[in-house]
Amino acid sequence: MKALITGASSGIGRDMARYLAQLGWDLILVARREDRLTELKKELCSVDVETIILDVGKQEDCFKLYELTKDKQVDMLINNAGFGLAGEFADADLYTELNMINVNIKAVHILTKLFVRDFIERDSGIILNVA
Length: 131
What we know:
By secondary structure, this protein is α/β, with parallel strands linked by helices. It is built from four helices and five strands.
């Protein structure tokens, strides 16, 4: 079994990678921070781990991620990349909010749409939207 996890460099994504590795799942870990993914890959030496450095906040990177992984028999997609903001709405930076929408909504939509079609065709697959 193979899982693809976005936002795998820290937090819940990192912990899901650790848990699935304990269960024997091979992993494709995706994040922006190469150093953290490299460190995690070394830790998870009991399974096959591939790392992909991309920013799912960029629409083109979402499509690139799918193209890089569509033929790798992904059994589970975990859309975990995401972030939030706190504070007064009027004071929040508009561009940070737009990036948050890209990561938390657009990336989840794009990746879910692309992978669900493959999962339907194969009649198998799991999608978890965590963020």
